[in-house]
Each structure stands twice: as structure tokens, then as C-alpha cells.
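Open question from group meeting: does this chain pack into something compact, or does most of it stay loose? Before anyone orders reagents, we agreed to write out a predicted structure and look at it together. Recording both the input and the output here so the notebook holds the full record.
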Amino acid sequence: TAAVELRDGELPTSAEAVMEAVRQSTVSAQISGRVVELRFDVGDYVRKGDVIVRIDERSAARALEASEAQVVEAQAGLVNARAQYERSKQLLSQKFISQAALDQAEAAYKAAQARVSALVAGAGAAATERSFATVIAPYSGVVSARHVELGEMATPGRPLMTGFDPSTLRVVATVPQAQVAAIQAGGKARIEIPSLGRWVDVKSMTVVPQADPRTHTSRIRLDLPAEVRGVVPGVYARAHFVVGKAPRLLVPRTAVLRRSEVTGVYVVGPGNRAQLRQVRLGSAGDEASVEVLAGLKPGERVALEPIKAGIASPGG
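C-alpha cells returned:
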């Protein structure tokens, strides 16, 4: 058994929330081509720099070869233009040609230089275009969605894969605007994940500087520590904020018994006789205890194993 206690504690308020990843992105194709390789699928862990998708690069490779051939041709023309310019300078010094002829040779030489520079840049762009055929992971994370199948055509802008970094998670809670000031003043919050039965301490809290004019609510981002595991974006959560202090009547969570729509505890009286008593619970509490609003008095003792107490009690 355990005693029902009236303690001065933190006065909380709770809000509905949802889990999201700080880093979550969709990788899209940057060139056209057939998807020839998919190295990862949904649920796989990918390290930063790993190749996740390969697109047929033959068209891009041919374009690169053509650009490189044009560079070689232009470089040969540049060599010829430079030689012609040097000869013209010598002929001018010997009075065999006019200044206009030298100026023309110099202009041809500079034009050949510019053509080489332009074609080298074009070859670099073609090489970059070819590199887009190999899609790599921008950061380490987990694949949450795959948007293409092997053999399908990829086009610029078409999504390929979506992933998120499980080490950077946060919870976004929606709270009434009237409570934002008290929540900021309290400066403390905890996250409850009902699906896992876990409570997590918040690393930091940020109030989004924007309010919804239709619902008169604001969003608060709660960053979670990196060691949180087993949760994914979209999971329902409940945020508990501290907005002050007040006396609360607390009982251990293990003492609470739920039968259909009835919530109660077994109160242990004289002679260790246990009797089921209906209670009304509040929103305050933590993973170990919960607030009781009605049905119990301070000092009463409750059974920590209500099922066994019910079996042992008369009519239980």
C-alpha cells in the first residue's frame, strides 16, 4: 500500500502535440533518365554520402564527351592563334605588315582564348550534370518513403526518397495564446509518449513567433535529447508545461484501476480490507504519480496492486 499525499508541487498544463524531425527532407532528381539502381528501401538506415539512387547516365556521359572534344578543338585553335599573333609582331617590327594586321591577329588570339574558357566552363557544367545521375544521402538517417520504382523515368524535380535524422527529434505542441506567457515564465516541460508509455525531459523550448488567428493558438517547439529512441515523426505526444505551483493530492499510477468507463482505486481500511472507490483524476503528475481531484482524502492508503486487492476483497 501507499499513502495518499498532499504535496506542494508544480502546477502543470498539458497540450496535444506531435513528433517531428528537425532534419527531414525529400531528395529529388536533377536530370532526366531511367532509374537503374535503388540501394535502399523504407526503414533502412543510410549514412551520409552513401549512394541511394542511380539514374542512367549514358546521355549525360555523351554530352560530356562532346564538350571535352570541343575543348580540345578550341585549344588547338588557340595554339594556332597565338603562333599567328607572335609572327605578326615580328613582321611588324620588320615593316612587312601594317599595325592593322597586327591588331587583327591580336583580336583573333583573344577570341580563341575566350572560346577555350567558355568551352571549359561548358565541359564543367556537363560533368556536373553527369554527377547528378548518382544521388547521395545529404546526412545520416532513416528512409521513411520511396517514391520511385526500378526502371521508372526520373525527371528534374521528381521526388526519389524521403528520409529523416532520428537523432534530431522535437515535439510541436499547440497551446492557447492565453497560456503562452505562463508557459514561458515556468520554463519547464516534459513530454509524454502514450504509445510507448514513456516520459522524456525536454532539452530546450521555443515559442514560434506566429499565432493562428482562427483558433487563437500558438505553437511551441520542444527539442528532445539525442538519446531518445523508438519514436518516429508523426507519433502522437502530450506536452506537460509548468505554469506555477499549488498543493496537489497525488497517488501512485500503479494504484489506479480502470474498468470500462470507471476509474478507481482500492482503499485499504481497518483490518486491511480493500474497498473499490471511484476517483476523478487530474492532468497533473508524472510517470510515477497522478493527481486526484475527487474521491480520496490525504492520509488514506491505497493498494499498489489493485487487481490482487480486488480478488482478495469480498465480492472482488
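Observations to bring back to the group:
Helices lie at 58-93, 99-131, 177-186, 306-312.
The longest strand covers residues 5-21.
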